Amino acid sequence: ALPLVRHPHTDAAEAALLAADLPALGANAGNVLQQVLKGTRPQIAEAVVALEACGAGFATMTGSGSAVFGAFESDADAQTAYRLLRKRWRRCWLTRTCDRGVTVI
Length: 105
Hints:
two-stranded antiparallel ribbon; alpha+beta; 43% helix
């Protein structure tokens, strides 16, 4: 029912992630379900916009929408966003990508 649905380019998104290229990640990654839910779950778009306004180079919803996340160029940018966004949302976490899972700070 969505004629203009944008499908992610998974291989290019993976390459961008491995190269730490956030602009390329944003151009190639995405979540089709997020586009479908746009009209019925405005809080998802609100969280994505908030992350982008705080400087996220890429922000989107996880798989089926249990969370929204943003990727930042630096730890300092992520920490600033966290300090601002945790005042707005009850459940807000600062994480760091690592080679073996995720570390929650």
